[in-house]
Design a protein that fits this description.
alpha/beta; TIM Barrel; ten-stranded parallel β-sheet; 10 strands; globular; binds S-adenosylmethionine; binds 6-(5-methyl-2-OXO-imidazolidin-4-yl)-hexanoic acid; binds iron/sulfur cluster
């Protein structure tokens, strides 16, 4: 029987209601986030996704945070779409290092018809490695979303990024409504939705609450919610965004966890600048997914070995995310190997694993 607090319909999360979460005393907010988290997930499990930029730079969009926009000088050169074999080789390496999902990103406004055959081939080939697939290619039309669904794409990432009110200060070339349209097409194609945002762009607490309310109001809620901390990129309009209190970032994670009890909440961009202690607080606040591997799309991320050590030090383990949307997992026995509902993934130092062959 769902807990009363989790039974709230998605639309029950008004901006005011989420703002009230942000305004709780920090210990109360974390306690509440932990309660919600433990009703739906093992508190020691982390899902690991690796990212690859399959088409870098030269993007016609004007997103104010982005190194890849051709409209600002973010220092990233435009490249062509990567060959399928190189993408598959990167996915295999990520799988062998312990990633269970492979996310492929392209710096496009939307895919061109000529790009689709290669992109669909990438989905099929990465799936054939036994990995979950995710793509983020910009806006999609019905046909493109349908084709990705038919190819077996598991997730499509398309973020709302911020509140409807702050949005126009950051992005001018696509509207909030455009984003919601793409997300509806992804849903209609039977592909799971990965949708989140960025904090630390100079938005207010109310904007952060409004972003969470928008995400939580999606019906159904996104299966995966990346919470990115702005990585300020020199040459972009947001290079000098005012610093955000780290506890405010943790509060955003906790509000996302409480408002979206069954979603995987991913502690996403910006981890390289975060001490381990802050990341641990994010896990306590309900984050249960990470980008794993030393590069995001163009920016740095902690080394895989540093993340393995962090999880080890915290007594946490990589999981396959199968507990998402599943029943509560309270049984300590699930720590051992495979059981219905969740699988522990062995993450390893591939340099050591490959030692015999190197
Ligand atoms: N071009 C596609 C699109 O925008 O739909 C996909 C890639 S885009 C880089 C994916 C997301 O990465 C953005 O929506 C944004 O939330 C996040 N992102 C990009 N640059 C970032 C930065 N400098 N700091 C934090 N997050 C960032
Ligand atoms: C998301 O929300 N964060 C990821 C993924 N979706 C594609 C991207 C983060 C990008 C960080 C900046 C960069 O690497 O250029
Ligand atoms: Fe282009 Fe995506 Fe960067 Fe916006 S976030 S400029 S759409 S690559």
């Amino acid at each position: 029987m769902p807990h009363a607090a989790d039974r709230q319909a998605p639309q029950a999360w008004s901006t005011e209601a989420v703002l009230a979460l942000f305004e709780l005393p920090f210990p109360d907010l974390i306690h509440r986030a932990q309660q919600v988290h433990r009703r739906h997930f093992r508190a020691d499990g982390i899902q690991l996704s690796s990212l690859l930029s399959i088409k870098t730079g030269g993007c016609p969009e004007d997103c104010g945070y982005c190194s890849q926009s051709a409209r600002h000088d973010g220092g990233v050169a435009a490249q062509r779409l990567m060959p399928v074999e190189e993408v598959v080789a990167a996915a295999r390496a990520a799988r062998d290092a312990g990633a269970q999902r492979f996310c492929m990103g392209a710096a496009w406004r939307s895919p061109k018809p000529r790009d689709m055959p290669a992109v669909l081939e990438m989905v099929r080939a990465v799936k054939a490695l036994g990995m979950e697939t995710c793509m983020t290619l910009g806006m999609l039309d019905d046909e493109q979303a349908g084709a990705l669904g038919e190819a077996g794409l598991d997730y499509y990432n398309h973020n709302l990024d911020t509140s409807p009110e702050f949005y126009g200060r950051v992005i001018g070339t696509r509207s909030y409504a455009d984003r919601l349209d793409t997300l509806a097409r992804v849903r209609a194609a039977g592909v799971k939705v990965c949708c989140g945002g960025i904090v630390g762009m100079g938005e207010s607490r109310r904007d952060r609450a409004a972003l969470i309310a928008q995400l939580a109001g999606m019906d159904p809620q996104p299966e995966s919610v990346p919470i990115n901390h702005l990585i300020p990129v020199p040459g972009t309009p947001l290079a000098d965004a005012p610093p955000l209190d780290p506890f405010e970032f943790v509060r955003t994670i906790a509000a996302a966890r409480i408002a979206m009890p069954r979603s995987a909440v991913r502690l996403s961009a910006g981890r390289q600048a975060m001490p381990d202690s802050l990341q641990a607080l994010c896990f306590l606040a309900g984050a249960n997914s990470l980008f794993y591997g030393d590069t995001l799309l163009t920016a740095g991320n902690p080394e895989a070995e540093a993340d393995r050590q962090l999880l080890r030090r915290l007594g946490m383990r990589a999981t396959d995310g199968a507990d998402a949307n599943g029943p509560p997992a309270r049984d300590k026995e699930t720590h051992a190997g495979t059981r219905a509902g969740m699988r522990t993934i062995r993450i390893q130092d591939t340099r050591r694993a490959a030692g015999g062959r190197a």
